[in-house]
UniProtKB/TrEMBL annotation, chain A:
GO terms for biological process, alphabetical: quaternary ammonium group transport
Organism superkingdom: Bacteria
Domain ABC transporter: 3-237
PROSITE patterns in UniProt: ABC_TRANSPORTER_1, ABC_TRANSPORTER_2
EC numbers on record: 3.6.3.25
GO molecular function per UniProt: ABC-type sulfate transporter activity; ATP binding; ATP hydrolysis activity
GN (gene name): cysA
Record NCBIfam families: 3a0106s01
Top-level enzyme category: hydrolase
Record-given protein name: Sulfate ABC transporter ATP-binding protein
The entry's keywords: ATP-binding, Hydrolase, Nucleotide-binding, Sulfate transport, Translocase, Transport
From TrEMBL, chain B:
Name of the protein in its database record: Sulfate transport system permease protein CysT
GO cellular component, as recorded: plasma membrane
Transmembrane segments: 12-33, 60-82, 94-114, 134-152, 184-205, 242-263
Protein encoded by which gene: cysT
Organism encoding this protein: Dyella psychrodurans
Cited InterPro entries: CysT_permease (IPR011865), MetI-like (IPR000515), MetI-like_sf (IPR035906), Sulph_transpt2 (IPR005667)
Amino acid sequence: MGIDISHLRRRFGQFTALDDVSLSIADGEFVALLGPSGSGKTSLLRILAGLDLPDAGSILRDGEDLLALDARRRGVGLVFQHYALFPHMTVAQNVAFGLRVRPWRLRPRASAIKASVEELLRRVELDHLSTRYPAQLSGGQRQRVALARALAIQPRLLLLDEPFGALDAQVRVTLRRWLREFHRSLGITTLFVTHDQDEALEMADRVVVMNQGRIEQIGTPEQIYRHPATPFASRFIARGQPIPGEVEHGTLRVLDRVWAVGGFAEDQITSITVHVRPEDIFPTQAHREGLAARVLNVRHVAGTVRASLAMAGLEEPLEAEWNEREWHRHPVAVGDVIDVHIQSLTVFGSDADGRVVARKEFQPPHGAAPVTLGPWRRVEA
Amino acid sequence: MARQVLPGFRLSTGYTLAVLGGSVLLPLAALLWTACELGPAGWWAQIATRRVLASLRLSFGAAMLAATIDVVLGLLVAWVLVRYRFAFRRLCDALVDLPFALPTAVAGIALTALYAPHGWLGSRLAPFGIDVAYTRLGVLLAMVFVGLPFVVRTLQPVLESMESDLEEAAYTLGASPSQRFFRVLLPLLAPTLLTGYALALARAIGEYGSVVFISGNRLFKTEIAPYLIVQKVDSQYDYRGAAALGAVMLAASLLLLVAMAWLQRWTRRWAVTR
């Protein structure tokens, strides 16, 4: 049941928009397509809506071939990034459009259309604005009109293209929560495209990470954040930062340290990528096997402290992130030279084709301090 | 007056008013002045003749019809030029401007040669009982010819800037191609179409050179009002009579353009700002 996308390919000239994309979406699921621009997510959305056709591959909905259906008859509701509201129609006329253009056999009576438009506008909390024109609405209101208009045709699949892209940050956060609740109450299978990690992680049941036309990882927000499958997913979702490293005969060499790592299949590996997350870099007391780091700058961002650290053997500074309370116990200032421990590393081994064939999350043994307390607890003791 | 941030308000506005006054208002005032010298009775005697009324009817009737035809044809031409890519598109695009650039007399002679009873097209249409040259149809044809580029050129930029989003949205909502055109595109293009209509209309009402050759200027049948004005001045040295007719045309044109502007505003009533 649900939607089965298999082996979808789409090229535009030299550019590969979709490269062998397969994905299953269960009924009622709320799925985010997350990726940078040009990753193919919008191409996939347009193909699902029937505005474009793939070069190869199939899409089945409950066993029915969706690609054989014209966009008019697909029963797919699409909310455009810039809403694409009809500017010459009022809010109510916009919402009624999908019902009014039906062939007269299928068209509800005028009174029924009016009733369902009113009901929809009540649901999106815009019933008081039904006679306004789109030009008279705010961005968030337009967004909800577009949503109501797409829902009016009672779609079996709802597609949202960058639903919050054109809104300011404040409205975005409010509307995010609202939309998630709205989806819960509707239960329509929904796929939304976004390039914003926070948005995808906060809203979706499952996140599909896309890059260069390929699916890098599919999983729940927690799975992807905790266990990124590829260096791209790690960088894009978990803010993983690359540091140079090598694996040889069961040992990992990173930043002049050598640790034994077990369970890492080295056979087909031609390249190694090591990532560290900002929150896994902790300041520690000197002389405790820490790595020396110079603080380049410190930024306070609403409850968290972010610092850039220059370290020997690294060309780019590493970003570290601590919460404000931890930082208060052991403040560091610009120019300080501190010792840091790396709590956790993710090691990816790729073959000659660039595919990840082995990965391991590794806790360097020097980070023995309990994470919950913070390593500088011992300074006070 | 509030302080202007933009520099040069006095200079540029003064200049604009001077140019407008000198080149537009002054000649119009002179026209009205000359017409007024006749007095109401003299004025009425000039206008209320069968010949003048027939010419006015033809001028305005044919111009309105021609502008309507221009809107339909112009929409088609602009649509094809903007939406499709084909061989010689650039050449076709350039050809649209030809009626702009061509001296109107040249256009008139060319059309006459083509549609005259012995002309290349005229001789082929004659067996079907269709006479173009020296008939009102000829007048209409010449007016359509000179008005077309106005519609095409006003529409083109608007069509180009129109996002395909709206059509796609209508499509996914289940609208058929004709519903997408009539319910979404046409209402959005209406203000622009009206602008094109007004321009083509203004041009057709005032058109002289290209019409007088193909019309043949037959009494009561194919005489246009500008032709009568030229006649009065040319053969009778009747400047006042010419001015009287001119004043009537001026008033009628003004009325039409005001009506167009009002209609256009109505079609854009949705573009309100908060």
